[in-house]
Q: What sequence folds into this?
């Protein structure tokens, strides 16, 4: 299984249309299973609601980290598998928060901190693919008045929300050495020493599920590297990328477990 990860630099509004089948292909020409991430607002149009319980409700936020996942590996598409993978994604987010000593409670596909809602999520399926959306509040600004919410920037001073729309850090993590030698002007052979901003980095990053060891190494090397060169700052783009890579690796482990299981 190969999953393509593309992080968008644009501050795209999530209005619910992105959950439609083959959105990544129509908008960005990405074929096959893909994860699209970006940081932007959310204001879901009523006609785009997929959960019957949400009809008539406002679902909005001024700034969120968005994940749109589409899988084509199960034909016909299986809604139950889509929901199981959605739960995996949410639990991976919970684990990453735990590593930062941020304790959360999971209720179904939502995370709450001190009874305040951190996330929104939905899973659905078309005839050809399974889709997941996960939105994480970066701020509680702009959320509905009748919902008690919380954002990442309010949870821990280590979250660095400066220049969060820049894709430099996420590209430095995902690109291999040859890609970095093309896209970076300084320290092309040492990804961990590259502190220059490069707005022309290619954001269409292929994450091959069978070759993540070098990516994971680069993540570890870049986890403490940010615009302030301070080990106390935590970059939200790195946080997004860790969730993506851990999700892909989890699916990889499941496939490997299946391949070595002797059926009864």
A:
């Amino acid at each position: 299984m190969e999953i393509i990860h593309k992080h968008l630099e644009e501050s795209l509004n999530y209005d619910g249309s992105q959950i439609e089948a083959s959105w990544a292909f129509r908008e960005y020409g990405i074929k096959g299973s893909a994860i699209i991430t970006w940081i932007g607002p959310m204001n879901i149009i009523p006609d785009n609601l997929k959960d019957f319980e949400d009809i008539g409700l406002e679902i909005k936020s001024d700034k969120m980290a968005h994940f749109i996942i589409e899988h084509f590996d199960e034909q016909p598409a299986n809604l139950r598998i889509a929901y199981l993978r959605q739960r995996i994604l949410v639990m991976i987010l919970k684990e990453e928060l735990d590593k930062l000593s941020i304790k959360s409670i999971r209720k179904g596909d939502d995370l709450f901190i001190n009874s305040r809602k951190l996330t929104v999520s939905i899973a659905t399926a078309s005839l050809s693919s399974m889709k997941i959306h996960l939105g994480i509040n970066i701020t509680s600004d702009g959320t509905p008045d009748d919902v008690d919410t919380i954002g990442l920037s309010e949870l821990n001073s280590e979250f660095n929300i400066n220049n969060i729309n820049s894709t430099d850090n996420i590209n430095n993590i995902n690109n291999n050495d040859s890609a970095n030698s093309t896209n970076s002007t300084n320290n092309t052979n040492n990804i961990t020493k590259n502190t220059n901003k490069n707005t022309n980095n290619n954001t269409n990053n292929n994450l091959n599920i069978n070759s993540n060891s070098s990516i994971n190494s680069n993540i570890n090397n870049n986890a403490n590297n940010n615009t302030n060169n301070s080990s106390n700052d935590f970059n939200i783009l790195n946080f997004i990328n860790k969730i993506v890579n851990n999700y892909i690796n989890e699916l990889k482990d499941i496939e490997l477990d299946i391949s070595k299981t002797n059926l009864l």
